[in-house]
Amino acid sequence: MQLALVGLSHKTAPVEIRERLAFNSEALKVALVSLIGKQQVTEAMILSTCNRVEVVAESPDDTLIREFLCDFHQIPAESVSKHLYSFRNADVIRHVFRVAASLDSMIIGEPQILGQVKEAYRIAADAGTVGMHLSALMDRAFVVAKKVRSETGISQSAVSISYAAVELARKIFGELNGKTVMIIGASKMGELAAKHLKRNGVSSVLVTNRTFERAVELARVFEGAAVPFEHFTDHMDRADIVISSTGAPHFIIGRTLAEQIIHRRKNKPMFFIDIAVPRDIDPSVNEIDNAFLYDIDDLQQVIDGNLKERLKEASRAEEIIDFEVQQFCRKMQSREVVPTIVAIRDSVEKVRRDEIERNRRHLKELSPEGQAAVDMITKAFANKILHTPIELLKQMASDPDGPETTDMIRKIFNIQPPE
Amino acid sequence: MHVALLRLALGLYCVGFAHSVLTALHKKQTLFKPALVAVSVGFVLHVTSIILRAMEVQYLPLTQRYEAFSFFGALVTLGFLIAYAKYRIAPLSVFVFPLIFIMTFVANLAYNPSSSIPQELRSRWLYIHTPLIFLGYAAFFIAFAAAIMYLIQENALKSKHSVRFYNWLPSLDICDDLSYRALAIGFPLITLGIITGALWAQAVWGVWARDAKVLFSFLTWLVYLLLIFYRLIAGWRGRKAAYLSIVGFIGVLVTLLGTNYFGGPHTFQ
Known about the structure:
The complex is a heterodimer. By secondary structure, chain A is α/β, with parallel strands linked by helices. Chain A contains 15 helices and ten strands. In chain A, strands 7-6-5-8-9-10 form a six-stranded parallel beta sheet. The two termini of chain B are 21 Å apart. Chain B is flat, with a radius of gyration of 19 Å. In chain B, 75% of the residues lie in helices and 0% in strands. By secondary structure, chain B is an all-alpha fold. Chains A and B meet through helix 8 and helix 12 of A and helix 5 and helix 6 of B.
């Protein structure tokens, strides 16, 4: 196994460079086939997302892949070479595991990347460019990604505004089933937050907007009810969650109003989410008992806290990856070392027999005891010479530099690598 | 035998106590499953210990301090196991397990091998009055723990600054609901307990307020009455209700522990 990986990501390249090296789904198949057509590349797969472009190949040579990337996209090598990284063998395994486990993502722990890696693998498999090595690597990568996800908290807490809103609502209400959300104003972010709340159990949606038609339109999307903006406050006591995102230049929900509404609700708690700038809801509403107000900065603060938490969890994830890389290297190398040892023994044994055969005529002159002694001496001679290289091969099964050394020993004995 | 069993139970409750400490330190529920198993096994041993003691003294084992604490500890455990089976609120354990441990620990310390029962406690009323009061107190403790959880969670939500929310705590809604339900169970028990106590005292002494404990428990009862009233009539919930629930439980503690120093039939010598 001789893995090579060349790529670039949001960490090494700006979007202008990334988009020039990206592959669309049509180009992917063409690229895979032409890669495989090259000498020294026996397996290949390409991962191309908006944050990264990576080529993983079974090949002893990574400069070849670098050249291929530039040639394929017709970009001069100088302009991208400083953005490209390349890895070999154990480092490839580690990188692939980290990417699949979302440790290398822009937002650590985001779940989409695993799906993207799976898709890239499927495309390569369909194109017939994945063999034993890459499929073993990717199968393990998916298992490792799952393990990291379930054993650490890297994808646990919310890191987007709309998920933070859902998470906070859960801390107040527990289950969101049977709860009502009111959307005031029609902004993209407000809509998104309402969508997430709905998906997480909120059962009815009220929409109000200055232009009533827009409210009706949105209400249809959420299968909710539109409320005229002039008297939305009359309906607000039905809402457990209020998302406000109007373009109003001043507060549209003041403290007195909020107090009245909480009173009308017999003190049942209310969660106000103010994502408008300038703000729609008087910040002192948060001081009212059973009212909880979060503005856009508060939500951002929650997200920042969660991100910090994810980073902490990421170091635990790295430990899992370390362990898995070692395990995988050991497994793959012992898979290659055993056939190599057998092949070396066979080839030396063949040399010995050929030589004895060739000298059969002279050997006949010896007594049977003498012939047996020659046989024994040559065998012992071969074994003693082979002892060191074979011991070394066995050690290499658990060494990160194993593949290079194994390859070197194969070359010395002129043995083909196992398929 | 019953003492050995109680010590064994105490050892098992230790696991529960460790779970609480670790959870508070890690800010996330740790060791809950083993602790739950240990406490459940401990509870079985504990109940066996109480039954053995009852057989030994041929009476309801509630006349000594050892017996009283042991009994109360077992009731709190029972209360928790019921609440957990019904609502699956694991975090409640963080508050309940230490109390169970402490009660059982005190019981072990207070053990007195004499099994003589004071003359004035030899009455059928003991079988009614004392368990009612203890059950009521156990319910009030659950209400208290739920109120504390409510306040911690509410404070985190209101202040917004806490980087890490208390993810192991249940939602505000569940805390408030649990606190209310425990109050709704505890209050009638205590009310009946006080009435039976008054009747007992009436029968023995002809008057019904002889010691500090009676006075304090009556004051505590008034606090809880107020809380019920506010919840039902004024629609109180959440923070204010939680505060009053805590005040009430402080009253319970004063009644249960403090008044031992004033003498009278409630001292559990």
